[in-house]
Amino acid sequence: MVLAGKSLRPRRILIIVENLPVPFDRRVWNEATALVKAGYEVSVICPVGHGASARREVIDGIHIYRHPIIEARSVSFYFVEYAVALFWEFLLAWRVLFERGFDVIHACNPPDLIFLIGGFFKLLLGKKFVFDHHDINPELFEAKFGKRNLLYRVVVALERCTFAISDISLATNLSYRSIALERGKMDPSRVFVVRSGPNLERLRIVPPDPSVRKGRAYCVGYVGVLGAQEGINYLLEAARHIVRDLKRNDIQFCIAGGGPELERLKALAIKLEIDEYVTFHGRVSDDELLRILNTADVCVNSDECNAMNDKSTMNKIMEYMALAKPIVQFDLTEGRYTAQNASLYAAANDSIDFAVKILELLSNAERRKQLGEFGRARVMEQLAWPHEEPKLLNAYEVLFEGGLAVHGQSRGQVASSHGAGLVPENLVRRLLSPLASRK
Description:
By secondary structure, the chain is of the alpha/beta class. The protein has 16 helices and 17 strands. The strands form 3 sheets. It has an 8-stranded mixed beta sheet with strand order 5-6-4-3-7-8-9-10, with helices on both faces. A 6-stranded parallel beta sheet has the order 13-12-11-14-15-16, sandwiched between helices. It has a 3-stranded antiparallel beta sheet with strand order 1-2-17, with no helix packed on it. α7 (232-245) links the parallel β11 and β12 (251-256). It is globular.
């Protein structure tokens, strides 16, 4: 079928994400599956990882291209990590272009470097660029390294460049939208809030497993990446206060997740003499995660109070709520917006008050039930992914509003158009066709 001399086909989207492999990046996977369901063709470039080692894979119609990654252990090695990732992302973008094609590069930060690839294809071939704003990198840099030096200013400049070339930006909350408008100078009509709502098909309520408690009466659960800014040290210090100062030996603390701080945190638990009361499960499967969280009597979010965490929405909070778990966390702007009455809020970075709030909930089963029921209802009625999916699709409709919609086609299926690139795409394909065979 043709229209105005051009063949009809679904729009093609290339998602690039560096910090997690798919399908384990839940936000990216929800977006990708929603777009496929709406009639788009979706390819994803991401790193390899535990449980996602295949370099080329198709899952649920989504074509996944994975590349090697080097994990940085110091500031200097971040340059190596990002350079290696950028090299593979650029190379695989060409491969996707030849094998499947794409109309849009949908870039998920961190880091704010993917604009280099998006800008290249936008300038050369007129491809569109979508910035999916997962993390505020200037605040993340400051949280990790505690200073605003030359590198901090470079990070701010990279963020500005990313916003500058974006056709639209997807913000995970209102705080991020404000940054896009104020620091990124974006047109308000091109910034869309699409929250990382949990998928209730994945987060199932199942019976608790008493073995998780290791013979103790109660279980406190945590899930998340174990990084420097996650504040797990506050949780361990709270556990020490409960176990050693208050002589409570009836609580098991279960921490699910991997990350660069895992071994240091294990050593800290030994130093605090609480290692027998803390289980580090490492990175776990979905089934194992559900086993742990459904057993927990209270779930916690110990993210440190800083500019990064105050403005960021933590997926773990909504996952706890989806499973009807009462929460203890520090009082952060977006954390309070998300959880509202599903959580108790400890004073900023106060591990003793954090411990007090945990014990307050453990001592009152009815209160735990009330908080859990409120959280579950809030997720189902307002925060779950089905409430966010239409916002994502609306953003893409605005992105393509200059194109010619075709009556009767599925959403996202419109007339073919390559934009106004400086070099015709078919010419680039002919000139670079030898590269296509070098896979």
